[in-house]
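sry for the spam today, last one i promise. C-alpha cells for design, 121 residues
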C-alpha cells in the first residue's frame, strides 16, 4: 500500500507523491523529533522539541536526557506503529546526530533511521 510522502510534494505525473510504509514511518519519526511542542495548532503537545537542545552545554546528563526524551516521545506518539529498541545521540560541533533503532509493528521488522540536525548559526 502507498501513503502520501513527506514532505508533501507533487510527483512527475502531477499527483500526490507516495511512499511505502517503512518510509512513511521514518518520515513520521522525523516529524516527531523535530517538531516543537506548541507548533501544531490542534496538537499542542505533539513533538519532541530537540531544536532547543542544539545550543545547550553538552554533557553526559544532556545526552541521557535527550535519549530519554526521544524514546518517550516516539513511544507516546507512535505507539501503534513502532517499538523503540535503542536511541543514540551525539553532539558534535553544533550538530546533533541521532540513531533510532525500532521494530515496525505488528510484523516486528527491525529498522534503523539516522537523523542530523545542524544549528542555523
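last one done:
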Amino acid at each position: 500500500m502507498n501513503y502520501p510522502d513527506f514532505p508533501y510534494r507533487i510527483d512527475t505525473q502531477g499527483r500526490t507523491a507516495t511512499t511505502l510504509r517503512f518510509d512513511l514511518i521514518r518520515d513520521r519519526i522525523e516529524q516527531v523529533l523535530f517538531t516543537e511542542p506548541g507548533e501544531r495548532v490542534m496538537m499542542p503537545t505533539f513533538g519532541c522539541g530537540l531544536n532547543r537542545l542544539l545550543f545547550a552545554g553538552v554533557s553526559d546528563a544532556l545526552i541521557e536526557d535527550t535519549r530519554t526524551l526521544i524514546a518517550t516521545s516516539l513511544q507516546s506518539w507512535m505507539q501503534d506503529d513502532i517499538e523503540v529498541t535503542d536511541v543514540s545521540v551525539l553532539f558534535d560541533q553544533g550538530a546533533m546526530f541521532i540513531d533510532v533503532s525500532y521494530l515496525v509493528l505488528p510484523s516486528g521488522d527491525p529498522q534503523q533511521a539516522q537523523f542530523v540536525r545542524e544549528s542555523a548559526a
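The chain is about 25% helix and 30% strand. ok im logging off now
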